[in-house]
Structures
1.
Amino acid sequence: MNRFFVDRDQIVDNRIEILGKDVRHIKNVLRLKPKDQIEVICDGMTHICEIMELGSNNIPLLIVDSFEGKNEPLIDIVLYQGIAKGSKMDLIIQKATEIGISEIYPIITHRTVVKIKDRKKEQKKVERWQAIVEEASKQSKRDRLPMINDITSFNEMIDILKDQSNIIVPYEEEETFGLKEALKNIEEGKIHIIIGPEGGFEEEEVEMLKAINGKSVTLGPRILRTETAGLVVGSIVLYELGDLGVRL
């Protein structure tokens, strides 16, 4: 069944109104008709809906069943990703959404190659990433849309993280402390994964993260690309904490 996401204000009593680009997709791409059913997701709730009619700018739906979704991870993982070049960042955001990351911060670090000085261009990038999140969420049957935050500087990230716990920093120069050890001492709350851009972190940046209780970890003897590292760490964290596979 095709899945769509809506805002809370699109739901009134037992009716939902589909708006925007989803109207064209339902009518012209999926070619659905009145009486056909779709899934509509809002704030973790799944609504099975029947198309009432196909309007020119909206599609009213009748809710026939509602239940709480069960597809979201049991833990919240926030990915702080050094912005990667070209289509790599799109790939990271798509796959992070698929595996179950809850929130993403695009980060500018000292070695970030991508330089965004125009506010309009920055906003267009964020809007593009939000669209990628929505499409990936539909495909992977997410019950909530992961949040894409505005592009954030390294120092702004430090301010965000300074009162947080569970900060994991994969670092190629770390040799003695691994991810498995870091996960043995996880506290209640969100898990924050910090990934550098192409070229990795400056040593000074890693020290700043350690100063706010970040745990520098090795991912083994092989160096992972920036578009690989966050997905590997996120998947391992989800597996180790019981989210990937059968839930008991």
2.
Amino acid sequence: NFRAHPDDYDSDLPSVTDFPLSFAMQKAFAPDDGEIYDLYRTLAQDHVYPEPNRLVTFLDNHDLTRFFSVVDEDEAAFKLAYTFLMTTRGIPQVYYATELMQPMADVEGDGAKRSDMPGGWPNDERSVFTEEGRTDRENEAHDFVTRLTTWREDADVVHHGQLTQFIPQNNTYVYVRHDTDDTVMVVLNNADESRDLSLDRFEERLQGATSGRDVIEDRTYALDDTLTVPARTPLVLEVK
């Protein structure tokens, strides 16, 4: 565990926050020059941690620039990043209002990162805690986050399963969460055009599977020779 230390120092910490992966997510989905290989490279260093599944993962927090501002309020980038957060190893932490794609406030100092969430105070003009009080963009984010997070709640393979990742190609990243009972294939296409993936490359984990249901859109894909992934789109496939 994280209490172990070469000098026998006991920190009493059962877990630590994963800043390296947070910074990698900010770089991977940055506008214009985002390179998803940063995620692969960071996870490849998991051997330095005694229990990487205990790491607390996050897109942003009270001391960092809000993630939606980091990606220049790009909704596709947010969905790709949130999908990664909910399906990679570790314990995901969501900073308040990140689930609604809240950007930095137009104020000076750290208050820009910690602005009020509308509806949390008696005199607020609107409440994001209701569908009617949210904007169309906020409702779209809320619905996306709700679908993915609700699925994750009962997905034991994501909580406790192994993670096998494949070297990204053409700004598209594939990894598989798997245990003895279930397999989930995650595809993050960070490119500006669709990608046709040859599935032979992932056979060691697909092991003859013929279909995968995308839990985000509730759509089933045939896993034949190739899988076409639309531009700037995540897929989370329950493989059968």
3.
Amino acid sequence: MPGATLSFALAYELRDANAPVIIQVKSNSNLFSDDNNMMQVEYDVAKIRQYYSEQIDAATQEAEESEKEESGALIQNEEQALEYLKKYLEDNDAYIPGHIELDGMIDQGYNFHGYDDMGDHIATSFWYAVSKDGKIYDGVMGNYVDAIESDTSIEYILPYSDSQYYTYDEVSQLSLEDLRIARNEIFARYGYIFRDEGLKEHFERCSWYVPTGMSSEEIESSLNDFEKQNLQLIKQCENE
């Protein structure tokens, strides 16, 4: 009976009832004492609406905070975790096996199995887990290893646009949004302060970004040959 009464109250509330309403409930058996076997229940629908609105607002805020925290993480997906791990191995002159595969998620992060297929058996080199804040956990030794504190390449779309020439094939495969960010990365390196809120928020999350207040004209006059050509290539791909 309480369930039926509540569902009816909510249905009534959805029909624009703001003031307290009287709901009559009739029993199929002689549960109520009056002659018509009826019971009247008063509901303050405005309070019901306020309660559920507060619950929805709280859940929405929690989801937004979780999403914001996730977007600010150093490692946001499997691909970045794998790139981060490979960079760690290269910088430490460690052996890189023929296969590095994700073996699910564990408490320490993305869990990678590094191995070589020897034909008649699998030769395991390591079990490393990469956390979202850039920590690397050695599953064999059971401890954390020193990660690459200076590695910021995963925070870029085109991490070497200031020191190497990118090809058309490399740049043309990027989405329009990634092209836009890659173009502005060149200016962000010089500390340009963005007026666009989306770009401003994006680069403020990058550990390498240091606002200097240089104007776009000052930056353009300071670009090196790599940056000039890459900038031109990015614009070309954006206009296609």
